[in-house]
Amino acid sequence: MNDPTAADISLPVPATTDVVLCPCGSKADYADCCGPIQHGTPAPTALALMRSRFTAFTLELAGHLLRTWHPDTRPKRIDFDEGFLWRRLQIVDTVRGGVDDTEGIVEFRAIYSGPQGTGFIHERGRFVRVDGEWLYLDGTVYDS
């Protein structure tokens, strides 16, 4: 199990990965989808950032998650649960969050399997653009 801390914000994402199709469900290659965002290319939209963050959870890339979390709400560390596998991302709704916006909302369901079985997290996440970079601010999690 990984034990990242806030110091991991500056850690680079590994340059290589065995991932071919992007885990975010876009049906694009990882190298053409979430990979560049995880390697420092700014996400053009809140939705693109959300997809890259889901992919970061699937690949346990704490540095990317911490770097793309607004500093006012960012946790000190991210712990990944052992035996927990993120399966699929469903986009439910988006509000603003485009290339010319400064705020946006992405509502999603993230399907997982774990020791207790399969389930999902349903969240309406808020994103803000700070100095040209989209950041995850916070979200409302609905009962699943």
How would you describe what is shown here?
The protein has 144 residues and is α+β, with helices and mostly antiparallel strands. The protein has three helices and four strands; from the N terminus they run αααββββ. It has helices spanning 34-38, 46-59, 62-67, and strands spanning 85-96, 103-114, 117-130, 133-142. The radius of gyration is 14 Å and the shape is globular. The two termini are 26 Å apart.
What is the molecular shape? globular
**Unreliable parts:** 1-7
State the share of residues found in helices, binned by percent: 10-25%
Helix and strand pattern: HHHEEEE
How would you write the strand order of the largest sheet? 1-2-3-4
Number of strands: 4
Number of separate helices: 3
**Sheet having the most strands:** 4 strands, antiparallel
Radius of gyration, in angstroms, nearest whole number: 14 Å
Sheet-strand content, in percent, reads 25-35%
- SS-based structural class? alpha+beta
Distance between the termini: 26 Å
Question: Summary?
Answer:
This protein has 144 residues and is α+β, with helices and mostly antiparallel strands. It contains 3 helices and 4 strands, in the order αααββββ.
